[in-house]
């Protein structure tokens, strides 16, 4: 929503300022310049980007139209899931959670938290890490290093779409100049024509530079920045899961493991200790009721 509002503000400010200065807005839009700039930009993306990254880019751009999913509600659900997993492991042994982490999509425990299960790659990261804890042959510090390497690789892969948009942003002003030069070439072929006609052609050529710079710094640049920040919030979620698993690997109690994970959450989406405690107590109550039934 805020992205759309921002884009509307950019467009309104540019067109409004131009109109206030006495400009005629329709003269800014020439199909030939738009086709040249947008088509060339799209072509450079296709040339330089693997198909799987193009697919991911489309998905990422669509996700920007929705609120950031890595919010307080997700972290509370994740804390409840982690607390229930660790409580089960503490009560019945690590082997008791093996079935849950082997097939999380079919696990009754994971299915209680669809908000968490929706983040497929994060769930796989959690389950793979817990599987190492279950094996018991990996020291906590080695597990920590392995998870760091996994997070770094995931971050590198996720940043590919941001890099694509950043490269487009860097190239758009130059592509705008190309469009402007082509417009000047066309103008020179009519140099013997009426002054008004030549002026119209020169203005059309200059809109190429205008559109290239505007699209770069008013559209693709800010969108790339926003996408990068979304990727950072996703990376922070992986760090949250890592903190919980590392604590569990050191035989911390379920509540301490949950608290250490909570401390790894950014302050703007971090549940309070009271909220976490209430969530964990609700898990205990639901488990007790299920056993009684």
From TrEMBL:
PROSITE patterns: MOTA (PS01307). One of its GO terms (biological process) is proton transmembrane transport. It is a multi-pass membrane protein. It comes from the Bacteria. GO terms for cellular component: plasma membrane. It is found in: Cell inner membrane. Residues 4-93 form the Motility protein A N-terminal domain. InterPro entries: Flag_MotA_CS, Flagellar_motor_stator_MotA, MotA-like, MotA_ExbB_proton_chnl, MotA_N. Coiled coil: none annotated. The chain crosses the membrane at residues 29-49, 172-191, 203-227. Residues 136-230 form the MotA/TolQ/ExbB proton channel domain. Keywords: Cell inner membrane, Cell membrane, Cell projection, Chemotaxis, Cilium, Flagellar rotation, Flagellum, Hydrogen ion transport, Ion transport, Membrane, Transmembrane, Transmembrane helix, Transport. PANTHER family: CHEMOTAXIS PROTEIN MOTA, MOTILITY PROTEIN A. Belongs to the MotA family. This is Flagellar motor stator protein MotA.
């Amino acid at each position: 929503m805020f992205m759309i509002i921002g884009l509307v503000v950019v467009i309104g400010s540019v067109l409004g300022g131009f109109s206030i200065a006495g400009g005629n807005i329709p003269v800014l839009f020439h199909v030939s310049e738009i086709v040249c700039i947008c088509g060339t930009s799209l072509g450079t993306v296709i040339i330089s980007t693997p198909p799987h990254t193009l697919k991911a880019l489309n998905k990422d751009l669509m996700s920007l139209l929705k609120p950031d999913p890595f919010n307080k509600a997700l972290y509370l659900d994740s804390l409840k899931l982690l607390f229930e997993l660790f409580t089960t492991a503490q009560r019945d042994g690590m082997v008791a959670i093996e079935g849950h982490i082997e097939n999380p999509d079919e696990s009754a425990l994971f299915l209680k938290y669809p908000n968490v299960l929706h983040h497929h790659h994060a769930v796989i990261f959690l389950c793979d890490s817990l599987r190492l804890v279950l094996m018991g042959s990996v020291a906590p510090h080695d597990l920590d290093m392995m998870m760091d390497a996994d997070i770094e690789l995931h971050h590198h892969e996720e940043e590919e779409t941001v890099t694509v948009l950043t490269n487009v942003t860097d190239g758009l002003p130059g592509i705008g100049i190309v469009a402007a030069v082509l417009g000047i070439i066309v103008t020179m072929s009519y140099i013997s024509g009426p002054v008004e006609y030549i002026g119209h052609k020169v203005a059309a050529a200059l809109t190429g530079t205008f559109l290239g710079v505007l699209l770069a710094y008013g559209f693709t640049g800010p969108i790339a920045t926003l996408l990068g920040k979304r990727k950072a919030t996703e990376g922070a979620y992986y760090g949250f899961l890592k903190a919980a698993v590392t604590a569990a690997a050191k035989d911390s109690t379920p509540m301490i493991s949950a608290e250490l994970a909570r401390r790894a959450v950014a302050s703007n989406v971090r549940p309070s200790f009271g909220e976490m405690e209430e969530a964990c107590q609700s898990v205990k109550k639901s488990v007790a009721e299920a056993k009684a039934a």
